[in-house]
Write a structure and sequence with these properties.
- Helix content is 8%, strand content 39%.
- The protein is built from four helices and 21 strands.
- The strands form four sheets. Strands 3, 6, 7, 8, 9, 10, 11, 12, 13 and 14 form a ten-stranded mixed β-sheet that branches. Strands 17, 18, 19, 20 and 21 form a five-stranded mixed β-sheet that branches. A four-stranded mixed β-sheet has the order 1-2-5-4, with no helix packed on it.
- The radius of gyration is 27 Å and the shape is elongated.
- InterPro entries: Cdc24_OB2, Cdc24_OB3.
């Protein structure tokens, strides 16, 4: 019998490519096929057959590592999630159901993704462990083995993962040392859907660094009528709503600081430094001054620190600071 072949046209970065579908026929077939025009998907583990190697357009060879993106704000996706994935929970998985081949559809939040490791007791197999938490607060591990571990690159902590027909392993019967009763694995019939975690961002106005450094002289000479420029940037916020500067290379100045900032870095001259005496921990207060002003930085140390290493007049660079306002609005 001749095997049927379906091609899916993909559009990314201004390029079209055809994907040969194998195990995903049911996702394309009408009337309930979810792979429709404008649907976003993640693909990995792909091989490209170029036009030189055959006739027609470039084509991605079949890959089983396909993740369909869902948006809970879209009616069709919300209906799909509610109808297909909200009837089962981690607590509904039973030994009888597993042994009788019951198919489960599960929906949970990604709590953590472990780093790649080698399990010597399992013959040197590679493993990725993804900890999932369902709506009832029950945790379950989703394991990826060997070539499957590349799927973890498509996930992020905080995203919601929908697993249709995952393979359910009984932990007591596996080679893993775990207290869990069950663990999930990526089986031959498993299909994954992802609702990506949208990180909240905040628009922050920051004065241009170049206007306050040596480069400001060149800028002023080019256009002496313009004052300091202000740049608006979108920065991610952490779970407490603080703006996270840890991955943003903009040099901040004292005048740029305000409450609810984290991961910031300051560079300036030390004007004063002393240790708090009436505290249990090792805490130093350091007054740092730049061209826009000065500010006190409270430094917490896990062990003793020598005051003589930094003294008044030294130029210091401090990273990983958090900025908050006091009750006196300082």
């Amino acid at each position: 019998m001749m095997e049927r072949i379906k091609l899916l046209s993909l559009y990314s970065t201004n390029k079209f490519v055809m994907l040969s579908l194998c195990r995903y026929y049911d996702l394309v077939d009408p009337p309930n096929g979810i792979l429709k025009k404008a649907r976003e998907i993640f693909l990995t583990g792909c091989y490209l057959r170029t036009a030189k190697e055959g006739c027609g357009s470039p084509r991605l060879l079949p890959t089983e590592y396909l993740v369909i993106l869902l948006d809970e704000d879209l009616d069709d996706d919300a209906i799909l999630i509610g109808a297909q994935f909200c009837s089962d929970s981690f607590s509904s998985i039973s030994h009888a159901g597993v042994k009788n081949g019951v198919s489960y559809s599960l929906y949970a939040r990604i709590e953590s993704i472990t780093s790649l490791e080698i399990l010597e007791q399992c013959g040197g197999l590679q493993r990725k462990q993804i900890t999932l938490v369902d709506n009832d607060g029950v945790k379950l591990r989703f394991l990826l083995w060997n070539e499957q571990v590349i799927l973890a690159n498509l996930f992020s902590v905080g995203s919601m993962l929908a697993l249709d027909r995952p393979y359910i392993a009984i932990a007591a019967e596996s080679a893993l040392e775990t207290s869990d009763e069950f663990c999930l694995e990526y089986g031959t019939a498993t299909q994954l859907y992802l609702v990506p975690f949208v990180q909240h961002e905040e628009q922050v106005c920051l004065s241009s660094t170049q206007n306050r450094t040596q480069g400001s002289k060149l800028h002023a000479a080019a256009d002496p009528t313009q004052g300091p420029k202000v740049s608006q940037v979108s920065l991610p916020c952490d779970s407490q709503g603080s703006i996270d500067f840890s991955n943003y290379p903009f040099q901040l100045f004292v005048a740029d600081l305000h409450g609810k900032m984290t991961g910031i870095s300051l560079y300036g001259v030390v004007r004063d430094v002393f240790r708090e005496r009436e505290t249990a921990g090792v805490i130093f207060l350091l007054k740092l001054e730049d061209s826009t002003g000065s500010i006190w930085a409270k430094l917490h140390f896990s062990q003793s620190w020598s005051l003589g290493r930094v003294s008044v007049g030294h130029t210091a660079y401090i990273s990983g600071l958090t900025c908050s306002k006091t009750k006196q609005d300082r």
